[in-house]
Amino acid sequence: MRKLINAEVLEHSMKLQQMGGKVNVVNSKLCYVSFDISGFTLEYVYNINKKGNYFLERIKPYPLPLREFASEQDVVDIIAIDLEQFKNAIRSHHSGEFVDSGRCMVDVLKKFEDLFLYYNISSDNMNLLSDKMHELDKIISQVKSDSKRLFFKKEPDNL
Amino acid sequence: MFNHLIMAIIIFSLTYVLIMSEKVNRTSVAILGAVLLLVFKVIDQEQALEHVDFNTIGLLIGMMIIVNIMKRTGIFQYIAIISAKKAKGDPWKIIVVFSIVTAISSALLDNVTTILLIVPITLVITDTLEANPIPFLIPLILVANIGGTATLIGDPPNIMIGSAVGLGFMDFLINLAPIAIVVFVVTMFILKLVYKKDLHASQAQKNKIMALDEKLAIKDKTLLWKCYLVLGLTILGFSLHQSLGYHSATVAIFGAGLLLFISKMDPEEVLLEVEWPTIFFFTGLFILVGGLEEVGAIDFLAEQVIELTKGNMLITMLLILWGAAIASAFLDNIPFVATMIPLIKSIGLMSTMPITPLWWALALGACLGGNGTLVGASANVIVSGMLEKKGQKIGFLNYMKVGFPLMLISISLSTVYLLVFYA
Fold it and tell me: CA separation (Å) from A110 to A117, A128, A138, A157, B315?
């Protein structure tokens, strides 16, 4: 099996090199982790390699790139916090709506990227999109101010 | 003793059937079969270890390490792009040049390694040409097995034979390379008749090939020069190992050790890529066949063969050549050769016939026979698996329509060669 994977890597590498890319192949382990929280699935994927890099990404309930980490312990810690936060969050009456909104955001982001890559949009439309983004950002800040904080073990990363 | 004989035959036969069935992993079966011989006290641990051919094991590991480091330089991609550009993007010319490269690489590295390196590159070329890869890959399978026949290190059966009998690199080169070259030329001529008419490429597709940049393929020039040096020394070492009084494994392990040292690569990274399942498969087989030898089953078989052929070297040689070819076309040739080696040795001890030609017959039959069907050799199975992952299929019968007649032709040519030079 390993030799077939190596052969595939060779094929992809050659194509990417001919496109001008520099391909650095690193042996690593890819780990899938899943938690079942009363029927609610939380899934992560992380990659450990000998070069000292650890890449962690949440894939369920909605995908979220969670950054690069310096050590395995950081990966375990971040999953532990995320798990605890989700355990708290699903007790909320709005957990379903939050998950749906999260998926919707990811979907919107993908569509936004398609706009950028496939269309030449007018300045007016660009302004319209920008205004709506800022509006949504303000609403999120407003909702935060109006809401009671429940989790204190760690400061929010983005709010 | 009789109980041991029965037990050894039962364990060996069951192991053999399971390996041939391909329903379970061959390495797991070989290890279990070997250890069962110890558990049932057919042989003891010391006897078992005496039967492991560490020269074969060392040679395999040494060459795997050298190739694993060498492939990181990008040299194979470089050669492939240069070759495709020399052929000006013409599909048939590309097949011819790639076939020559494959046959030579197979002879100097080994056929499975060569296929694993050349096929991904060929797939990039066929993607660029927007061509069906099958007419490109079937010739590569065939010539990889033909090229591997030519030298001691080209194909595992040759490594096993050379190691068990003390035949060296030059012995194989002198005795097998001439017929391998003839078989290669005849095979390419027939393949041209089969495939050339279906191979077309537009000027735009040819231009894409000409636009490939071979310089982008070389990843590490310093490492490349170190690899050239070590591979050159290793091949020189193989050419001289008998006159210098070294085993072939010593040469391969010297090359591997030297390259590991001067390349400054992490040994853990390199050793991870050694095909350990293959190494353990060989080890298990050596013990299994050793068990049969210890209980006298091999001597019994040898007596039967001598009785059948009346001790006639010519008949025995042709029986081995054709038997090995047909068996290798459908079955894994490694267990077959592992069993045949002590059998031929016993024939030599029990009769007056010269047995050196029998080794060439076994090598030719086992290596070239693998071309007969899609399951005949590891190279064939690997290419088929790689194509299936890309959603394409060679098909057992489709391959056999080309491979089996070509195998019969190659064995017929080998028959004439053996009759002319060794009868």
Answer: 11, 18, 21, 22, 73
Whether B289 contacts B337, CB under 8 Å: no
**Test mutation, A1, A8, A11, A22, chain B, max B CBs within 10 A:** A11
B363 pLDDT exceeds 80? yes
Task: Report CB contact under 8 Å: A11, B212.
Answer: no
Task: Check B389 against A17: CB less than 8 A apart.
Answer: no
Who's near B255: CB < 8 A, 6+ residues apart? B62, B66, B230, B231, B233, B234, B237
Token pair 């429940």: residue: A150
Residue of B nearest to A2 (CA): B273
Judged by a CB distance cut-off of 8 A, whether residue B385 touches chain A is: yes
Q: Where are the beta strands (DSSP E) in chain A?
A: 28-37, 40-49, 54-60, 64-69
Burial A16-41 (b: 16+ CB within 10 A, else e): ebbeeeeeeeeeeeeeebeeeeeebe
Q: How far apart are CA B369 and CA B403, in angstroms?
A: 10
The CB density around residue A145, as the number of other CB atoms within 10 Å, is 7
CB B125 within 8 A of CB B80: yes
User: Could you tell me the end-to-end alpha-carbon distance of chain A, in angstroms, rounded to an integer?
Assistant: 46
Cα A83 to Cα A37, A76, A100, B74: the distances in Å are 9, 10, 18, 44
Q: What is the DSSP letter of B217?
A: G
Q: Given CB atoms, is A140 within the 8 Å cutoff of chain B?
A: no
Here the tokens at position B67 are 């190739």
pTM of the model: 0.82
- Residue B210 vs residues B88, B103, B120, B143, B214: alpha-carbon distances, Å: 7, 24, 19, 25, 10
Closest CA to A11 of B205, B125, B245: B125
Q: Which helix (H) or strand (E) holds B11?
A: helix B2-21
What tens digit of pLDDT does each residue of A96-147 get? Answer: 888 888 889 889 988 999 998 999 999 999 999 999 999 999 999 999 999 8
In chain A, % helix, strand, coil (3-state, to 5) comes to 50, 20, 25
Contact across the interface for A11 and B116, Cβ inside 8 Å: no
Rounded to 10 deg, the angle between the B2-21 and B297-309 helix axes is 80
Three-state DSSP at B315 gives helix
What residue segments make up the domains of chain A, in order of their start?
27-146
CA distance B423 to B418: 7
Choose, out of B113, B116, B274, the residue to mutate when testing the contact with A (most A CBs < 10 Å).
B116
Query: Nearest 5°: phi and psi at A45?
Result: -130, 135
Q: Spell out a b/e string for B166-186, using b for 16 or more CB atoms within 10 Å of the CB, else e.
A: ebbbbbbbebbbebbebbbeb
Helix H, strand E, coil C: the string for B179-201 is HHHHHHHHHHHHHHHHHHHHCCC
| A49 reaches B (C-beta below 8 A) | no
B115 vs B379: CA distance, rounded Å:
6
3-state helix, strand, coil in chain B (%, to 5): 80, 0, 20
Q: What is the pLDDT of residues B26-69, one digit of tens each?
A: 899 999 999 999 999 999 999 999 999 999 899 999 999 998 99
